[in-house]
Structure formats: structure tokens, C-alpha cells
Amino acid sequence: MFEPRYIKHSHLLIRHAEKLIRYRRDRLSESVITELHTQLEKVRTAMKSRDQRATHEESERLDTLLTEHTPPHKDSVWRENVEVILVAIVVAIGIRSYFIQPFKIPTGSMQPTLNGIIGHPLSSPAPNVFKQVFDFVAAGRNYIDVVSGAENTVMDITPRKFLFFFTLSRITCDHQSFTVYAPPEILRQDFQVFPGNVYHRGQVIARGTVDTGDQVFVDKFSYNFVHPHRGDVFVFRTNRILGIREDPEAGAPFYIKRLTGTPGDELRIDSPKLYVNGELANSFGVRRVMAAQGLYKGYGPGQSFLGTPTRTYVVPAEGYFAMGDNSYNSYDSRYWGPVPEENLVGRGLFVYWPFTRHWGFIR
């Protein structure tokens, strides 16, 4: 590291020359190989003498020889760019598979800690395009405005995928069809659009905003070395969990919940409180929910598990109990039981978009 810059440059040139000679030995004549080796020795001799001028001149001659006898391939630029892109893809896949994976919050089961997709009906039309672009970039807000152009009866509302990430809906009517940047459940839940609805010409079918769900990075690495902790916000697969249907195309959905019970824990809910092993749960996220302040409502009773204040449930070995922070609107372990250990994906780490008050590390 303390060598002069011209020496470092010459070392790199020599390594490059030796590599090219090895790679192209079968295509080069013996005379050319001899000439290249002779010039390599001249560069080394100049470097040993610490003669900067001589080293520079001999290095230039070596570079000229290399260019003359090993000309670049006519498509070398394209090949190099493709190679860089492929390496970047491989690195990205490796990071996604073993370290960090992006995940989109699909529902409101973790509100207000994490937002799912939320629709807001409006009576006024969308603002100008600059305001729309700003709202989308900063807050993940999309404006929709669907107006019936005829006497229409809604026949069906079907989901559509764009680039495997963006969820749209196709509203099929008897006379028209509309593509809307909102999932079918949001159109039904927040905009009251259902099959069978009748709309007259000029009548609004759906108008308002759709806020995208929080986009989070999931830490897939930590759980390889440490056990999940109570209070973690964690992501898991739902395959082989009774009561959760798999999508025929996408497979079992991924859920994100708060981990409220680890193997061996005895749980009990006495609304709004959650008890673990006979004591009030003490992790930060759980205590925030139990406080039932602001938009938090505390923990509600379950259906199949923890249905009354006197019922307890012991989490089995290699199982984890998952509950949403929006307890009264969360389909979680209180309905279908513990999450098998092999289904764990990782810990919710960081909200990277949109840039709202949720942006930052997840607690």
C-alpha cells in the first residue's frame, strides 16, 4: 500500500498480461509469446531499478503489444455489460434468498404499527398530475376515478398482477370493463363495489385514493443464529396451516404478524390484556397494543383458541403464536393455531417506502 502509484499500475499491467497470455496461448505464435515475455521482463527490470520514466515507457510498450496481438472482440462492450448485469442479478438473488427480502404489507391486520392497503372514498376529482406524482412518490398514494359510461351492472371483480408486484382489479360490467389500481377486496370493503351493483351513465363507481401497503425489508439472516423473540414482528409462510387457502397460481400467501408466544409459553387473553405464563406480556410492541390508546384497541378474544378470559393455550414445541396488532380485525393464530417453525421467513426489519411516519425500523 506504500508503493508509488506507477509501480502499482505496472504490477496490475503485468498481471493482466500474464492472464491474457495464459488464456490465448493456443492462438498466439511462439514468436509473439516470446516477444511478450521479453517485454514483461523489461518492465520488471525497470520497476526494480525504481526508474519512473523507464517503467512508464516499458509499460506503454507492453500495453501496445497486448493491444496489437490480443485485440478486443468486436462485441466485447456488450459482453462486458451483460456480464455485469448477470453478476448483479446473481448478487441480488443471493441477498434476497439469504439476507434481506422486500415484503409488502397486504392487509390492515398490523395497523396502526404497519399499514396495509387502505382506500379512502372522495367526492371531489383527483388533483393535478404533479400533485398525484408527488403523493405517489412520497406517500404511496394512488388516485382512482371510475365513472360509468353507460347503464352498467357489475358482473365480476377479478384481480390482475402487473410485474408480479402491483395488484390491480378488473371490474367487468355488462356493457363496459374497467382496470383499477386497487385490489378487489379494497374495492369491496372501502368503495362498496360489489357484483350486482347497478350504475347509471355518469355515475361514479369508485373515486378516491388508495394508499399502498408499507413496503418492508425482512431480515432472513438472524433467525439462523438466534431464536425468535416474543414481540418480534415476523413474516412466515402459511402453507400447511389449516384454514388458510393457497392461491392456485401464487401458492400459499405470506403473513406478517407479531410473535406473542414461543414454544412452551402458556397464553391467556383477558381483553385488552395478554398474559404469558401467568404474567402480563412485557415486550414493547405487545404493551403498546394492550395500552389500548390512540388507534390501538388491545387484544380481543379468539375463536378456536383463547376464546374466553379463563381459557389458556400452551404453545407446542417448534411452534410460534402469531397475532396482529389490529387484534379485532386480524385473522391469526387465535383462529388457526401456531405457526410451524419451518414456516418462519424472518423478522420485519425496516419500512423503506412510503416515506410516512412509519418509515424506519419496525418496533
Present the secondary structure layout.
Elements: H1 5-23, H2 30-48, H3 52-69, H4 76-98, E1 100-104, E2 118-121, H5 129-139, E3 141-147, E4 152-162, E5 166-173, E6 177-180, H6 184-189, E7 198-199, E8 204-211, E9 215-219, E10 233-237, E11 254-261, E12 266-270, E13 273-276, E14 279-280, H7 284-290, E15 313-314, E16 319-323, H8 333-336, E17 339-340, E18 344-353, E19 360-361
Helix pairs in contact: 1-2, 1-3, 2-3
- The first-level CATH class name of the largest domain: Mainly Beta
End-to-end span in angstroms? 44 Å
- What is the total number of structural domains? 3
Mean pLDDT: 90
Profile the largest sheet. 8 strands, antiparallel
As for the CATH topology of the largest domain, it is Umud Fragment, subunit A
CATH superfamily of the largest domain: Umud Fragment, subunit A
Total strands: the figure is 19
Structural description of this entry:
By secondary structure, this protein is α+β, with helices and mostly antiparallel strands. It folds into three domains: about 5-70, Substrate Binding Domain Of Dnak, Chain:A, Domain 2 (Up-down Bundle); about 125-210; about 215-360, Umud Fragment, subunit A. The chain has eight helices and 19 strands. The strands form four sheets. Strands 1, 9, 10, 11, 16, 17, 18 and 19 form an eight-stranded antiparallel beta sheet that branches. β5 (about 165-175) and β6 (about 175-180) form a beta hairpin. α1 runs antiparallel to α2 (about 30-50) and α2 runs antiparallel to α3. It is elongated and about 90 Å long. The two termini are about 45 Å apart. The model has no long low-confidence stretch (mean pLDDT about 90).
